From TrEMBL:
Organism: Martelella endophytica
PROSITE patterns, per database record: HTH_HXLR
Domain (HTH hxlR-type) ranges: 20-127
CDD domains given in the database record: HTH_ARSR
Key words of the record: DNA-binding, Transcription, Transcription regulation
Protein name: ArsR family transcriptional regulator
Length: 131
C-alpha cells in the first residue's frame, strides 16, 4: 500500500519528512497548540483576557455566560500550566487574585485572530456547497 504524501503539500521548503511528521515536526507543534486550546472555555477566557489587561476570576465568571466556577478554575489552571496566562495573588484578605496573558499568550493572539478571519471568509455551510 502506498504511503500518503500529504505532508509534501505543506508550504514549507522541501526537506526530510521529519520536518512535518517527526517528533519535532510541524504536526507535533500544531497538535501541541491545539491541545493547549482544547476545552470549551479556554478560547473565551483567552479572548476576554486579550481585551482587558488583567481580570479577577469573579469578573471572568460574569463576562463568560454559562461557565461554572469549577470549570473556570480548571481552565484557568490549565492555561496557567501551559504558560498562556499568569496568576497574581496579592496576598490580601479577602483574597485578591488577578489573571493576565503572558507574553506567550499574547504571541498566540495574532494566530487566533487569523483563525477568526479565516472563519469569516469561509462561513459555515460553504464547505458543503463546494463538494
Amino acid at each position: 500500500m502506498d504511503e500518503a504524501i500529504t505532508h509534501l503539500k505543506v508550504p514549507i521548503r522541501f526537506e526530510e519528512r521529519d520536518v512535518c511528521l517527526g517528533p519535532d515536526g510541524s504536526v507535533a507543534h500544531v497538535t501541541r497548540v491545539f491541545r493547549m486550546l482544547s476545552g470549551r472555555w479556554k478560547l473565551p477566557i483567552l479572548f476576554r483576557l486579550f481585551a482587558e489587561p488583567s481580570l479577577r476570576s469573579s469578573q471572568l465568571l460574569r463576562d463568560i455566560p454559562g461557565i461554572s466556577q469549577k470549570m473556570l478554575t480548571q481552565h484557568l489552571r490549565a492555561l496557567e500550566e501551559d504558560g498562556l496566562i499568569e496568576r497574581e495573588d496579592f496576598g490580601e484578605q479577602p483574597p485578591r487574585v488577578e489573571y493576565r496573558l503572558t507574553e506567550q499568550g499574547r504571541d498566540l493572539m495574532p494566530v487566533l485572530m487569523s483563525v477568526r478571519l479565516f472563519s469569516q471568509r469561509h462561513p459555515e455551510g460553504q464547505e458543503k456547497q463546494r463538494r
